[in-house]
Amino acid sequence: MQTQLLEAGEDLDSIPERDVYYLVRGIRLTISSPLAKTVLVSGAFFETIPIGEVLADAFNQVAIESATDETDASEISQRLDIQQVHFARTRRVEGSSISLRFRVMAQVDPRANLLSDTRFPMIAANTLTMLVHEPQLTDPDLTNQYTWDQPPDAIKSCDAYNHLAQALDEIDKSLKEIIQVSVLRHPMNGPFFLAQASIHP
Questions:
Q1: By 3-state DSSP, what share of the chain in percent is helix, strand and coil, each rounded to 5?
Q2: Which domain range does residue 23 map to?
Q3: pLDDT tens-digit readout, 151-175
Q4: 115 and 128: one domain?
Q5: Rounded to an integer, what distance in angstroms lies between the CA atom of residue 169 and that of residue 182?
Q6: Total of domains in the chain
Q7: pLDDT tens for residues 86-136?
């Protein structure tokens, strides 16, 4: 993407950095009815360390497994180009009837499976949930769910609560009556503001 922006004459320093969100949906089928969870989640939930570090460490592991000795592993690691844009290009080999394109496949660590009833019971079935990383919500007593108008001051003062309040005021203030708020603790990335509304199957 950087290459495309540069070719279009964009100044990369002037482009604002944006937060990434994922929409995650899971359904568990039961005899009586399906149990659905739909979560709009900040990218920080999955991106607990910068992608460059993840790629560098993963390639270093490959180098160590491929090397015949420590010196060889060190040399391989130093030569690796860990820019995803470089290794994701289509590669053509003379005489081959196929081209190669490398892709990084990611899978969620079980500790970060937000649809897990045992790991994150506060993300209930038949709910629509929003999770936003809020590192300042460190108070360990913030474990309950609260009605929109009765949260502790720590929740009321966080950015996510206030931005959501502003958006709900513009859309329909009555939506606040169905929203519960809480704090979800990510095992590797700290506290997340949680806003949740029940949905009926």
A1: 35, 25, 40
A2: 2-46+108-198
A3: 999 999 999 999 999 999 999 999 9
A4: yes
A5: 20
A6: 2
A7: 666 788 888 888 887 777 777 788 888 888 888 999 998 899 999 999 999
